[in-house]
Amino acid sequence: MDDKHYGDGTEATRVLDALDPVRAGRLAALDQFHVGGVRASRRLAGRAKIGHGQRVLDVGSGLGGPARLLVDETGADVTGIDFTQHFCWIAQALSVQTGNADCTRFCAADALVLPFADDVFDAVWTEHMAMNIAARDRLYRELRRVARSGGILALYDVVEGSQSVGLLYPVPWASNEVNSHLVDADSLRRVILDAGWTERIFVDETAAALDWLSNVPQSSGFEGPTLRDVMGPEFPTMIANLRDNFEAGRLGAVQAIFENSSASI
Ligand SMILES: C[S@@+](CC[C@H](N)C(=O)[O-])C[C@H]1O[C@@H](n2cnc3c(N)ncnc32)[C@H](O)[C@@H]1O
Questions:
Q1: Which whole number is the average pLDDT over 86-109?
Q2: Minimal CB count within 10 Å: which of 22, 129, 185, 252?
Q3: Is 121 part of any domain?
């Protein structure tokens, strides 16, 4: 991954200083870093059927919005890991401000080398992170290693569309093609099955993504920092390119649930 794409941390202090605890309940413009915002995370949570007290690992947890949503709406206990250290700082600060610090924690780590023992999580959750990973076979094996037998993988990712040529950059996960590692939906399904997961749900989310991108709210009513403050002045261009790429069929989106149904890798 281009370790400058998500910033070098200089924005983190300003974003942290600008957070207002009174408004911390309305953070989606800052902490849900994927197409479709909080509703998309909620749809994935509904499909995943995560239960109270379950141990969830959010891989590529970003600013922690999905983790807090899971805590608030399912009663799960969520550990987030993210390659970008300053995202983990912001995520942790937001959890403190929103009263979620007991049930969420965030640390910097690489999804390909998870700092956890085998078989520890009831669910592994990942949204819009895999597009940064070239070694998908390794990724889905590593996610399975840390999931208990019977545990699930819940994912929401952007995939290559039927018109894959001429993708416009920058997009929110990559400044250029060197750091973007898209696969199409069939290849995604195949690489996950080959890693030993069993498919339970596989849903095309392209229409919902297009709908959201056509109506991205200009203002959330939230006066605190947004993803624009975290990602910098190119962020509106990234969103405009994303919309154009979806409209032209260059991109699609899927949500899926897989189960770790066999005993060992
Ligand atoms: C588009 S953001 C999505 C954040 C979050 N999942 C969400 O939906 O709000 C992608 C995240 O993946 C993280 N990421 C990229 N490559 C990673 C890797 N190899 N290991 C862990 N995190 C990674 C980035 O740092 C970034 O925070």
A1: 94
A2: 22
A3: yes
Residue nearest to atom 10 of ligand 1 (CA): 129
What tokens appear for 255 in the block? Answer: 């949500």
Q: What is the pTM of this model?
A: 0.93
Residue 43 sits in which domain range? 13-259
Measured in angstroms, how far is the CA atom of residue 69 from the centroid of ligand 1?
17
- Continuous H helices in the chain: 10-18, 28-31, 37-48, 65-74, 85-97, 136-146, 185-194, 206-214, 227-231, 235-247
Task: Give the residue from 48, 245, 65 showing the smallest Cα distance to 158.
Answer: 245
The CATH number for 146's domain is 3.40.50.150
What is the C-alpha separation between 239 and 225, in angstroms, rounded? 17
**In sequence order, what DSSP letters do the residues of 229-240 get, joined into one string?**
HHH-TTHHHHHH
Please tell me the distance from the alpha carbon of residue 223 to that of residue 184, in angstroms, as a whole number: 37
Question: In angstroms, what is the span from residue 148 Cα to ligand 1's centroid?
Answer: 23
* pLDDT above 70: residue 119: yes
Separation of 173 CA from ligand 1 center, angstroms?
8
